[in-house]
Amino acid sequence: MLKIALIAHDRKKDEMVNFTIAYEHVFKPHQLYATGTTGTRIMENTSLEVTRFMSGPLGGDQQIGALVATNEMDLIIFLRDPLMAQPHEPDITALLRLCDVQGIPVATNVATAELLVKCLERGDFAWRELVHKYKPGIEE
């Protein structure tokens, strides 16, 4: 079971809902997280259980970023609106930077999200389980 974050800017929320409907069977066995309204919309339109954080502009991106920083997130689908300025752009940039630092796969559009979900469906993310098992610096 992987931890997957689902985030969508306002004009991309319908796209995210449609995406999660299409791949509900793939997401079902995993632990899902989302920012406020995105999580609510997903739960209203699917049978998926989603742990909701605050709205992105109110700190939800940073809450997900905290999980990324500690390598507790396995995959992020963040449908960004590239044509609309976001008031919390520094938070978004920080989240994407943390994904790069930790090597967390992140999709920022439906095309890339679909590729990652197809990999998830095939079981190509088994390497993430090894990351959790053998975290550097953690003594058991």
TrEMBL record:
The keyword Lyase applies. Residues 1-140 form the MGS-like domain. InterPro entries: Methylgl_synth, Methylglyoxal_synth_AS, MGS-like_dom, MGS-like_dom_sf. It is an enzyme of class 4 (lyase). Transmembrane segments: none annotated. The active site is at D61. Its EC number is 4.2.3.3. GO terms for cellular component: cytosol. It catalyses: dihydroxyacetone phosphate = methylglyoxal + phosphate. Belongs to the methylglyoxal synthase family. HAMAP family: Methylglyoxal_synth. This is Methylglyoxal synthase. It comes from Cohnella fermenti. The gene is mgsA.
